[in-house]
């Protein structure tokens, strides 16, 4: 794995006069899953928005040697970054397949995109069964699968997931995380996941960073963080 596929240095971001991130720095290797953890209000969502161009940021964001800092969301997406925001952002009146095809709107390799549509259906068989249904008729778990599937239609090099388990039943959440892990292993897609369920996120991640008040207070291999009882009790709020 490359240690510097994504390099973030001294990242500052916020909303208007409110500063949220205060000098965040991290690296993610190619083909890794990175978990960003921390309490509500720590800056996790803002970090993903800064990486995808959704919020103004100051600092360095370098993806495979290309500086993405200050670029628009559309320009960032063209460099292979797909962002699945909290709340999914599904187009409810459109069908499942129409939603998925929208994920490939930046692509010019239409034949390959058609092939990828079947690849996504392979990851999410329930979507294949419901391809003609309106997205608004799907369950919460199915809508989250659709949101991730739409992001995969970009064939991203970097996939950003914001709270994928939000509002989902534990069984559905475990299934969803298993699919994310399979995508990572089979397609070598680099993934950054922001997640309140720290135990679950650490179970699939290679590395993790803990944010508190807009600053990284802890970084390391996910297994090491997960195994340290004092760390998880102090920062993550559960017992090992």
Automatic annotation (TrEMBL):
Domain ABC transporter: 6-238
PROSITE patterns in UniProt: ABC_TRANSPORTER_1 (PS00211), ABC_TRANSPORTER_2 (PS50893)
CDD domains assigned: ABC_TM1139_LivF_branched
Pfam families membership: ABC_tran
GO BP annotations listed: L-amino acid transport
Listed InterPro entries: AAA+_ATPase, ABC_transporter-like_ATP-bd, ABC_transporter-like_CS, BCAA_Transport_ATP-bd_LivF, P-loop_NTPase
GO molecular function list: ATP binding; ATP hydrolysis activity; branched-chain amino acid transmembrane transporter activity
Superkingdom field: Bacteria
UniProt keywords, alphabetically: Amino-acid transport, ATP-binding, Nucleotide-binding, Transport
Family: Belongs to the ABC transporter superfamily.
Protein name: ABC transporter ATP-binding protein
Organism: Actinomadura craniellae
């Amino acid at each position: 794995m490359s240690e510097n596929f994504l390099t973030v240095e001294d990242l500052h971001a916020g909303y208007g006069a409110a500063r949220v991130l205060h000098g965040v720095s991290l690296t993610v290797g190619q083909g890794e899953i990175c978990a960003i953890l921390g309490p509500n209000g720590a800056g996790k969502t803002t970090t993903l928005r800064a990486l995808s161009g959704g919020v103004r940021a100051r600092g360095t964001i370098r993806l495979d040697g290309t500086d993405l800092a200050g670029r628009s969301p559309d320009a960032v997406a063209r460099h292979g970054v797909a962002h699945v925001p909290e709340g999914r952002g599904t187009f409810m009146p459109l069908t499942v397949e129409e939603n998925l095809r929208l994920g490939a709107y930046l692509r010019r390799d239409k034949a390959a995109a058609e092939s990828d549509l079947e690849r996504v259906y392979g990851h999410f068989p329930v979507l294949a069964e419901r391809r003609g249904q309106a997205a608004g008729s799907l369950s919460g778990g199915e809508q989250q699968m659709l949101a991730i599937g739409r992001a995969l239609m970009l064939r991203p090099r970097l996939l950003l997931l914001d709270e994928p388990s939000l509002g989902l039943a534990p069984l559905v959440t475990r299934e969803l995380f298993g699919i994310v892990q399979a995508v990572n292993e089979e397609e070598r897609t680099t993934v950054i996941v922001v997640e309140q369920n720290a135990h679950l996120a650490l179970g699939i991640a290679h590395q993790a960073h803990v944010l508190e008040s807009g600053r990284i207070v802890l970084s390391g291999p996910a297994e090491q963080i997960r195994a340290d009882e004092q760390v998880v009790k102090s920062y993550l709020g559960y017992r090992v």
